[in-house]
Amino acid sequence: MATTNDLKNGMVLNLDKELWAVVEFQHVKPGKGPAFVRTTLKHVLTGKVVDKTFNAGTKVETANVDKREMQYLYPDGEDFVFMDLDTYDQIHVPGETVGDGVNFLLPEARVIVATHEGVPLYVELPTSVIVEVTYTEPGLQGDRSTGGNKPATIETGATVQVPLFITTGEKIKVDTRDSRYLGRA
Fold it and tell me: Is the dihedral of CA 117, 81, 102, 164 positive or negative?
């Protein structure tokens, strides 16, 4: 248990048996009336963002979220298997928990897996990865870096938009948050 005066960004709260991460908080002391804390909370599982106001000093239940660096091993049906790098224990994470991160999950990639009471909550990938372009249409004479974009399939099977001058077999850097091309690797 903690009070609203102890809130910090990234702290995970257990409100009504659901986990919410504190994105932002602000202590407010109006001229009249009692102080309060205005927060922006993000649901850990669904990603839904809500604004919630608490009276100052109100007790809130904190959740113990264990974040560990793990290595991706292999897919297993609908699940993905990760290995704890300290204990070598393996954990199965459901595909819906990995979400869109599967588009950039390379073999032996190191990621952060967050669990609460042994249940995987989410998988945090690095902000960018270096991947190989396995297929893209050839560029035409006169294509320049400022020309436009074309779709390219990368080694994980995902499709990203790349400049016209990128060719099959090149390594590129891609942002894992929004699938944006960042440059050649």
Answer: positive
Tens digit of each residue's pLDDT (9 = 90 or more) over 92-104: 999 888 888 899 9
What string of DSSP letters covers 55-93?
ETT-EE-B---EEEEEEEEEEETTEEEEEETTT--EEEE
Residues 6+ apart with CB under 8 A from 31: none
DSSP string, 115-162: EETTEEEEEE--SEEEEEEEEEPPPPTT--TTS-EEEEEETTS-EEEE
Find out whether 128 and 182 touch, Cβ atoms under 8 Å. Answer: yes
- The half-sphere exposure of 139 on its side-chain side, counting CA atoms within 13 A, is 17
Q: How many C-beta atoms surround the C-beta of residue 69 within 10 A? A: 13
In angstroms and rounded to an integer, the radius of gyration of the C-alpha atoms of the chain is: 21
Q: Is the pTM of this model over 0.85?
A: no
pLDDT in tens, 8-18: 888 889 998 89
Nearest to 98 by CA among 129, 75, 66: 75
CB of 120 within 8 A of CB of 84?
A: no
